[in-house]
């Protein structure tokens, strides 16, 4: 593989496109964004992820120019954009509600921004046609927004916001209104368009799957702060906190006290139970309260005790969630905690040998989970 | 379950008779051939013909139309501006006071409005005439416009305006190119309402008019004091027709616009797959 990986954030020479410098935003006494610093690089597909009220939409609205930072600065290509009104920013936004102009046709909606630039008619028309082709809307150019489907409206909104070739495109929950299947298709379409146009995308979403699918980097936010900013795989495999581990995907959390023993950490999590062994990512203080986080798919389940695994937990099957391609077993271990184990259903349902109330063994390797400090 | 009942039918008939019987009689007698208002002598349109040959009435009508057009246009501009500020500006200090003050003239006795305007015009030495009536009518009809427009703006999706700003519009362009076309039906019905209000106002007009400007309602009122002539009936019938058309059109526009806007916006906002 000679392909260079796209990772401008690892290159210290690279200048970021957007810089948040100690930005704080307060609405009255409520702090929406709390002393936040963040760099986003050109051509990134950057996702702001968090529960509602975490400040992600506020960040986007500050980039678009609808809100101003109370403290700190936001730079776009090195220029402070604070005093620049939204209509003079090289930033466009795709609204959650799409905000298509109901009195204008699809064509006129897409041309709307271009007409404000006093370009000549042919240039506008050529650009609109290009956008219609890109979003496969050529057939619907003459229709009004209420005469097309939700998926098509979403594409009109995208075409309209891309038409001016902004340096930065903001997407506010762009797929929230679409049903699941259409959403998945559209995610790939978005990535495709992002790649074709080379525009920097910042997407706001509360859907972690969506963020993981489309983004080059994900910022997990909570209460106006960035909790972790990393690539989707790092966020998933090596969350830096219980919050991130819990927010992204399904996770088993086991609390205990950790002790360093050579290369490894021994986690004593319950009286009279064998400890859990894990490899730390960095140096860890001895005898600290730690949480061991492990994803359900990294936990194997078996009826017979596997002899070759270091980490073993015994328990009883409480519940089985059959999802077609995978099954999740809810296993009650010592102390009453439920651990989830996921297996791919490679065999037919009838051939499955584990059922309710079975005594089972859960096992996992030393490197499959992470230790998180409190 | 809805069933016909004599009680309901009677109530309805009595109610509507109470409201419309006087007007129906007026309309019928406007087609009376006899010169005596109370004696029916067959159908005729002669009073309409005479009316249109009476220069004084025609002059008064022309004054009224001009006053109505100018005052309702100014009232629409001011009322729309007031409505957008009140709906959009969010909660600023004294917002309740401002909105209360905009709506207060709606319930203010016309005599008081008229009198205070008269005192103002005398105070600043403004010669009374068409111009002062226009000002006076603008004053009270802009409240109605702002009520109509602000109820439309309250349901207006704010992100449409933000989208326009985002795409490079100045705030004024955003209003002109996006907001105004969408709320146009409400603005038009506000204008029609203001127009009809101005058309039939007697009290405020008589306070603020001068010798040079006699509006139709003033003309009719003074003519009636010398005895009801069939001509007046004809004129009143025409005015009833104009006002009815205006009010019905305004309410139809509002209703139809509300239905289509709701559909369009819902459709544009909600994705249905």
UniProtKB/TrEMBL annotation, chain A:
Family indicated by similarity: Belongs to the ABC transporter superfamily. Spermidine/putrescine importer (TC 3.A.1.11.1) family.
Domain called ABC transporter: residue spans: 18-248
EC class (word): translocase
Protein name: Spermidine/putrescine import ATP-binding protein PotA
PANTHER family found in the cross-reference section: PUTRESCINE TRANSPORT ATP-BINDING PROTEIN POTG, SPERMIDINE/PUTRESCINE IMPORT ATP-BINDING PROTEIN POTA
Reaction catalyzed: ATP + H2O + polyamine-[polyamine-binding protein]Side 1 = ADP + phosphate + polyamineSide 2 + [polyamine-binding protein]Side 1
UniProt entry keywords in alphabetical sequence: ATP-binding, Cell inner membrane, Cell membrane, Membrane, Nucleotide-binding, Translocase, Transport
Lineage: Bacteria, Pseudomonadati, Pseudomonadota, Alphaproteobacteria, Rhodobacterales
Any one of the GO BP annotations: putrescine transport
One Pfam family linked to the record: ABC_tran
GO cellular component, one term: ATP-binding cassette (ABC) transporter complex
An example Gene Ontology molecular-function term: ABC-type polyamine transporter activity
InterPro entries, per the entry: AAA+_ATPase, ABC_SmlMolc_Importer, ABC_transporter-like_ATP-bd, ABC_transporter-like_CS, Mo/tungstate-bd_C_term_dom, P-loop_NTPase, PotA-like, Transp-assoc_OB_typ2
Annotated function: Part of the ABC transporter complex PotABCD involved in spermidine/putrescine import. Responsible for energy coupling to the transport system.
Stretches assigned to coiled coil: none
UniProtKB/TrEMBL annotation, chain B:
Stored CDD domains: TM_PBP2 (cd06261)
Domain of life: Bacteria
Locations listed in the record: Cell membrane
GO annotation (BP), single: transmembrane transport
Keywords assigned by UniProt, alphabetized: Cell membrane, Membrane, Transmembrane, Transmembrane helix, Transport
Species for this entry: Roseivivax halotolerans
PANTHER family reported for this sequence: PUTRESCINE TRANSPORT SYSTEM PERMEASE PROTEIN POTI
Cellular component aspect of the GO annotation: plasma membrane
Any Pfam family the entry gives: BPD_transp_1
Limits of the ABC transmembrane type-1 domain: 61-253
Family: Belongs to the binding-protein-dependent transport system permease family. CysTW subfamily.
Membrane-spanning ranges: 12-31, 67-89, 101-124, 130-153, 174-194, 232-253
Gene3D superfamilies: MetI-like
Membrane topology of this protein: Multi-pass membrane protein
SUPFAM superfamilies, A to Z: MetI-like
InterPro entries per record: Bact_Polyamine_Transport, MetI-like, MetI-like_sf
Name by which UniProt lists this protein: Putrescine transport system permease protein
Main localization category: membrane
